[in-house]
Amino acid sequence: MQSPFDESENISLVEFIQRYPDEQSAIDFLERERWSDGVACPHCDSPRTTHLPKYNRHQCNACRKQFTVRTGTVFYNSRIPLHKWLYAMFLLHISRKGISSCQLAREIGVTQKSAWFMLQRIRESMDPGLEVLSGEIEIDETYVGGLEKNKHANRKLRREWKKGRQTVLGMRERDRDRIILRPIPNGLKSTIANDILMSIAKGSTVYSDESSSYAYVSLWYHHRTVNHQKGEYVRGRVTTNSIESVWAILKRAHKGIYHQWSHKHGYRYYNEIAYRLTEGSSDIPIMRRIRKLARRSFHVQLTYRELTGRTSPNVELVTENA
Ligand SMILES: [Zn+2]
C-alpha cells in the first residue's frame, strides 16, 4: 500500500481534491494510515485477513467477520463517501474560526443534517482524551451563552443569565502550547478540581486569578496568582493572558460561526477550538495534520442516537454489514 504522494507536505485544497477525487482514493489513504503494518481485524485483532476486492471488504480468517476501513471508526454507519469526510477534515483545519454545518453542506454537497452529524463526529475525534499538561500552566474560566446584556442587569435577569450560560475551564501549557477546554456542569468547584487533577501533572506550576474556585490548587501544584480585582494582570512570569486570549476566539466562534450551541454538545465545540489552536499551526504541513486527525478518528464511534437521543431517517446513514 504505497502512496504515490508525499503525505507529510503542504498542499492546497485544489490539490487535495485532485489527489482524493473519489471513494477508492480515500479508502487507500485511510487504509495506509490505519494499517501501516498490514491489515488487522478490528473485531479480534487477528492479522490473518483476506481482501475481497469484489465487495471492497476484508474478511477475517480467525473470527470470520467481514470489515472495511470504516468499521469501528467515526465513518462507521455513514453513507457519505469517504473523500467527502476527508474534505470536511481539510476544511476544519483551514478555516481559522471553524465551519458551520450549513457552509460544509454547501461545500461538499450533503444535507445540512448530514454535515452537522459529520462535524460532531470529527469534533469527537478531536478530544484530547487522557492528555496531561505539565510545566507552567495557565488556568481560567469563562461563561458561554446566556444573554450578555443580562449580566449586569437587575437580579431577576442576572439569575436568567446564570441559568442560560455554561462555565468553561481552560488550561494552557506554555512549553508545548497545548490547550484543554472543559465544560463545567453547573460551574461546580468539585468538577473544576477534578478536571484540573485529571489534566495537569502534579508538581506543575499553575497560574490563575484569585478566584475561590482555585483555593485548593496549592495542595497539588505550585500555585501563583494575579489579582485582577486590583488591576494586576502580569507579575513576572505570573499571568493568565494567554489562556484569556483563547476566550476571545471561543466567543467569536460561538457568536459568529456557530450561532450558539447547546450545552449538551458544548464539549465537542470546545474540543474543536482547543484542537485547532493546539494542532492547527500552519507551520505544520496540512497533510501531517490531517493524517494525525485521521488516526485519532479510528478510535471513535458516535451514533446519531447517542448524539441526539433519537434515530433519524433524514440523515444519510446506512447499516454496515460488519
Ligand atoms: Zn477477526
Summary, kept brief:
By secondary structure, the protein is α+β, with helices and mostly antiparallel strands.
Structure description:
The chain is an alpha+beta fold and 322 residues long. Among the domains are: 13-34 and 70-127 and 296-308, no CATH class; 136-260, Nucleotidyltransferase, domain 5 (2-Layer Sandwich), CATH 3.30.420. The chain is 39% helix and 16% strand. The protein has 11 helices and 10 strands. The chain has helices at 13-19, 23-34, 82-94, 101-108, 112-125, 155-164, 189-199, 241-257, 263-279, 286-297, 304-308; strands at 49-52, 57-60, 66-67, 136-145, 165-173, 178-184, 205-209, 222-226, 234-235, 238-239. It has a 5-stranded mixed beta sheet, sandwiched between helices. A hairpin with a 2-residue loop joins strand 9 (234-235) and strand 10 (238-239). Helix 2 packs across helix 3. The model is unreliable at 312-322 (pLDDT under 50). The chain binds zinc ion.
Key descriptive features of the protein:
single chain; 322 residues; Nucleotidyltransferase, domain 5; five-stranded mixed β-sheet; 11 helices; 10 strands; elongated; disordered C terminus; binds zinc ion
The class by helix and strand makeup works out as: alpha+beta
Radius of gyration: 22 Å
Largest sheet: 5 strands, mixed
CATH class of the domain at 136-260: Alpha Beta
In sequence order, what are the helices and strands, one letter per element?
A: HHEEEHHHEHEEHEEEEHHHH
Would you tell me which CATH topology of the domain at 136-260 applies?
Nucleotidyltransferase, domain 5
**Through-space gap between termini:** 23 Å
Q: Which molecules are bound besides the chains?
A: zinc ion
Query: Rough shape?
Result: elongated
Uncertain spans, ≥5 residues at pLDDT below 50?
A: 312-322
Please tell me the CATH architecture of the domain at 136-260 by its name.
2-Layer Sandwich
Strand order of the largest sheet: 6-5-4-7-8
- Strand segment tally: 10
The pLDDT mean sits at 88
- Counted by DSSP, the helix tally is 11
Strand coverage percent: 15-25%
- The helix content, as a percent range, equals 25-40%
